[in-house]
Structure formats: C-alpha cells, structure tokens
C-alpha cells in the first residue's frame, strides 16, 4: 500500500482510456515501477558507474606506474654510462683526433675566463659532461659517453654501437649549445660549421 507521500508524488495519466500512476514502464509487458523499484534502479546504476570509474582510475594508475618504471630504467641505464675521454678515442681514431685538435672545440674550455671556468652555465657547453674533468668539447660531448660503445668489438658493429649509446643526431646536438642562450651567439649554420670539423 502506498503512503500519502508516495501518492502525492505521482501523476495520474490516461493511457488507453485507463487511469495509471505516472511511473515509467520498466518492462516490455507494460508493467509500471513503484517508487521503491525506481530508487533501487537508480542505486544499481550509480553503483555500476562507480565500479566503472574505479576501473578507469585503476587502469590509469597502472599505466602511470609502468611509465615511471620505464623512465627509471632508462635513466638508470643512461646514468651508468661514463665518459672515457678524448685520449681513449684517439687510440683508434687518429685522423678524427687530429682534425679535432685544430678546431675551436679543442680550446673551448681555455677560451673561458677564470670566473667562467667555475660557472656551471659555461661549463655545460665548454666542457664534456659539464665538468672540468673533461675540458673542452671532446668527442663524447657530441657522440655521448663512450663507456658502453668504445670497445673494439662494439665499434665494429654499427647496430651494437648505436644500441650502446653512440649519438647519431649531430645537428640536434649542436644546437644544444649553439643557440640564443650563448652570449657569443651570432647565428648557426650547421652545414657550414660541419664542413669545418668534418671527420
């Protein structure tokens, strides 16, 4: 039996000549739902939406965790690489070393004043690895730390040497230093500059 409150919330409509309370049909046979059934239906739909939202949040958290793990792995792998120094490169690459030796890159650290030689902003481009331990713009400043690719076996295999971290993006590497942030920047033409140090 419906209460006075339930009755007052209902709307009487004429359907096929018969008076029906204004509840929506809930089945194909034309049955009408009570207020309790409607409330139960709304509650069930709310719980279903909540479950879907929880699944979405869970999947997002799982994806974020996977990204963090991948980033940590790549970062740790990159951090494990160390610089070996231009002298190690010169053992096999004598021609390239002789070209580098006469270039401005070989005097980059010496061109800095005493104060600038302690300034991290200057060291980031006038040394290799941002430290005076590897002064000047050595081979690895462009090609990347060589500890993983400088051995003879790896160097003889292009696929291995690239996988081990040898940088092939020369132009993109150059503009990391040859840009508007440099106080001596006068524009940069990669092709023209490359012809000066081509090796």
Compact description:
It is built from ten helices and four strands; from the N terminus they run αββααααββααααα. The chain is mainly alpha-helical.
Structure description:
The chain has 199 residues and is mainly alpha-helical. The chain has 3 domains: 1-33, no CATH class; 42-80; 86-197, Orthogonal Bundle (Flavocytochrome C3, Chain A, domain 2), CATH 1.10.1130. It has 10 helices and 4 strands; from the N terminus they run αββααααββααααα. It has a two-stranded antiparallel ribbon. A two-stranded antiparallel ribbon has the order 3-4. The radius of gyration is 36 Å and the shape is elongated.
Describe the structure using short key phrases.
199 residues; mainly alpha; Flavocytochrome C3, Chain A, domain 2; 3 domains; 50% helix
* Major sheet strand order: 1-2
The CATH superfamily name of the largest domain is Flavocytochrome C3, Chain A
Structural class: mainly alpha
Query: Which residues sit in consecutive blocks of at least 5 with pLDDT less than 50?
Result: 5-23, 70-77
The major β-sheet equals:
2 strands, antiparallel
Strand portion = 5-15%
Topology, number of strands:
4
CATH class of the largest domain: Mainly Alpha
Helix-strand topology string: HEEHHHHEEHHHHH
Kindly state the percentage of residues in helix. Answer: 40-55%
Total number of distinct structural domains: 3
Shape: elongated
CATH topology of the largest domain: Flavocytochrome C3, Chain A, domain 2
End-to-end separation: 95 Å
Which CATH architecture of the largest domain is right? Orthogonal Bundle
Continuous helix count: 10
Q: What Rg is obtained from the alpha carbons, in whole angstroms?
A: 36 Å
Mean pLDDT: 78
């Amino acid at each position: 039996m419906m209460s006075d409150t339930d009755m007052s919330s209902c709307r009487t409509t004429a359907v096929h000549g018969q008076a029906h309370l204004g509840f929506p049909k809930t089945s194909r046979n034309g049955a009408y739902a009570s207020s309790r059934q409607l409330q139960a239906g709304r509650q069930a739909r709310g719980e279903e939406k909540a479950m879907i939202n929880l699944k979405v949040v869970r999947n997002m958290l799982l994806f974020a965790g996977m990204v963090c793990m991948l980033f940590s792995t790549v970062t740790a792998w990159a951090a494990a690489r160390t610089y070996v120094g231009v002298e190690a490169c010169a053992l096999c690459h004598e021609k390239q070393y002789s070209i580098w030796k006469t270039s401005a890159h070989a005097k980059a650290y010496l061109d800095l004043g005493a104060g600038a030689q302690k300034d991290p902003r200057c060291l980031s481009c006038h040394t290799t690895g941002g430290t005076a331990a590897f002064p000047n713009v050595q081979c690895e400043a462009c090609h990347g730390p060589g500890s993983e690719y400088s051995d003879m076996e790896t160097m003889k295999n292009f696929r291995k040497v690239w996988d081990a971290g040898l940088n092939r993006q020369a132009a993109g590497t150059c503009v990391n230093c040859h840009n508007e942030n440099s106080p001596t920047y006068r524009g940069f033409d990669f092709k023209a500059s490359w012809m000066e140090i081509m090796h």
